[in-house]
Design goal:
3 helices; about 200 residues; 2 domains; five-stranded antiparallel beta sheet; alpha+beta; elongated
Length: about 200
């Protein structure tokens, strides 16, 4: 009697036993053992769990990188805008007070880095009027896509907004709620205003 192992496709191994009947001289092939080779359910579950953990780590890391990139873009926009607004002030003796004056400054914003919905103004410009007791001041405030808020002003330069403090334009200028200020929004009901859409 001879026994051999024969590999088949689809992960099966077949053990063959050859026997010869003495009276007939016929060889019979008997299937002795069919063994399926593959993964167990436990092994597959472990693989699925490991893949899930790696995927979640990747998503969190990517989200953090994207948030930092959006914040950096918004801060860069505010710095560049402040320089242009200061140049306008140097030429005209006051900061822009109307949307048409802001439009002439040609401010540019990385629109994909800003929030698209928020309970407060996503982009807000404020300035003191001529003859204000607070002098000649401006501020530009923005909310990034990561919901972080930043303010650049002639009073304090570029700063990250402190949660819990006011998001009113007069506060950005160091003024009070009864003081007269020019307040111009740059993003309203899902649309960028002309002065912010250059």
């Amino acid at each position: 009697m001879t026994q051999i192992k024969s590999p088949l496709s689809a992960g099966y191994s077949v053990y063959l036993r050859f026997t010869k009947q003495p009276s007939h001289g016929i060889i019979y092939i008997m299937l002795m053992n069919i063994k399926k080779q593959g993964f167990t359910i436990v092994e597959l579950l472990i693989v699925v769990v490991v893949i899930g953990i790696l995927a979640s780590i990747t998503v969190v890391a990517y989200s953090g990188i994207q948030s930092r990139a959006n914040d950096t873009a918004v801060q860069s926009d505010l710095r560049n805008s402040a320089q242009l607004i200061e140049a306008y002030n140097a030429l005209n003796g006051h900061y822009p007070q109307l949307a048409s004056e802001l439009n002439s400054v040609k401010l540019k914003f990385s629109k994909g880095s800003y929030a698209t919905s928020a309970p407060d103004s996503i982009l807000l410009y404020v300035a003191t009027p001529d003859g204000s007791p607070y002098g000649n001041r401006f501020a530009l405030a923005a909310i990034s896509k990561s919901n972080n808020r930043f303010i650049v002003s002639s009073l304090n330069g570029l700063q990250k907004w402190t949660p819990g403090s006011s998001w009113y334009g007069y506060d950005f200028l160091g003024a009070g709620p009864t003081d007269s200020v020019f307040s111009i929004t740059g993003f309203y009901r899902g649309n960028w205003e002309s002065w912010a859409n250059n």
